Amino acid sequence: MKIIVGLGNPGEKYCYTRHNIGWLAIDAWLGNVSWSKNNRFNALIHEDGDCLFVKPLSFMNDSGYVVRKIMDYYNLIPKKFGIINKKGEDLSDSLMIIHDELDLNFGTWKIVKDSSSAGHRGVQSIINHLKTQKISRLRLGIKNDLLKTKIPADKFVLQAFNQNEKNSLPEIFSAIDIKKLF
């Protein structure tokens, strides 16, 4: 089982914000599929073959709790002494996190494994809950000239994409074949 998690915030007001690019990417790749609300995980889920696509319904900074519950449920975290999970375990073959990245220009993307959160609180929450940074991550660039004007990062990520960016998203997403990334 491969778990593919798009990070974002629930609610209509966040739908087209930069912070929700993970959700938008998954929606673009899957098209018009049905999502099931899973109360156990506090997430929307869609199963496609051996892939479980996940959109956490917690807010971004609490994403780790949702991811941990899913990883535990599917027994994807190796245990030490039968009950305690190992620290620093490599989960990159079973988990892919898709998230916004302030350090990359809009329209660019990068795959990383075994990398720090670089200040991304949603990613840090996941690292903290899993006790490892050895996870696959698809970092989707959101930086633009507006960020260079020294707007605070927390305000910038919660702004909606401008119209040109919004129009470019389908082309950006179509250039990435998610099922071949890990």
Helix and strand topology:
Blueprint: E1 2-6, H1 21-30, E2 36-38, E3 43-48, E4 51-56, H2 63-73, E5 79-80, E6 84-85, E7 95-105, E8 109-113, H3 121-130, E9 136-143, H4 145-148, H5 153-156, H6 163-174
Parallel strand pairs: 1-4, 1-7, 7-9
Antiparallel strand pairs: 2-3, 3-4, 5-6, 8-9
Helix pairs in contact: 1-6, 2-3
Can you describe what's shown?
The protein has 182 residues and is of the alpha/beta class. The chain has a single domain, classed as Rossmann fold, CATH 3.40.50. The chain is built from 6 helices and 9 strands, in the order βαβββαββββαβααα. The protein has helices at 21-30, 63-73, 121-130, 145-148, 153-156, 163-174, and strands at residues 2-6, 36-38, 43-48, 51-56, 79-80, 84-85, 95-105, 109-113, 136-143. It has a 7-stranded mixed sheet with strand order 2-3-4-1-7-9-8. A hairpin with a 2-residue loop joins strand 3 and strand 4 (51-56). Helix 1 packs across helix 6 (163-174) and helix 2 packs parallel to helix 3. The mean pLDDT is 92.
Quick overview of this protein structure:
The chain has 182 residues and is an alpha/beta fold.
Q: If helices are DSSP runs of H or I spanning 4 or more residues, what is the number of helices?
A: 6
Strand arrangement in the largest pleated sheet: 2-3-4-1-7-9-8
Strand % is: 25-35%
Please tally the β strands and state the result. 9
> What's the end-to-end separation, in Å?
12 Å
Integer-rounded radius of gyration: 16 Å
Taken in chain order, the helices and strands follow as: EHEEEHEEEEHEHHH
CATH superfamily: Peptidyl-tRNA hydrolase
**What structural category characterises the helix and strand content?**
alpha/beta
CATH architecture descriptor: 3-Layer(aba) Sandwich
CATH names the topology as Rossmann fold
The pLDDT mean sits at: 92
Low-confidence stretches: none
Tell me, what is the CATH class? Alpha Beta
Residues in helix, %? 25-40%
Structural shape: globular
Number of structurally distinct domains: 1
Give a quick account of the main beta sheet: strands, pairing sense, barrel closure. Answer: 7 strands, mixed
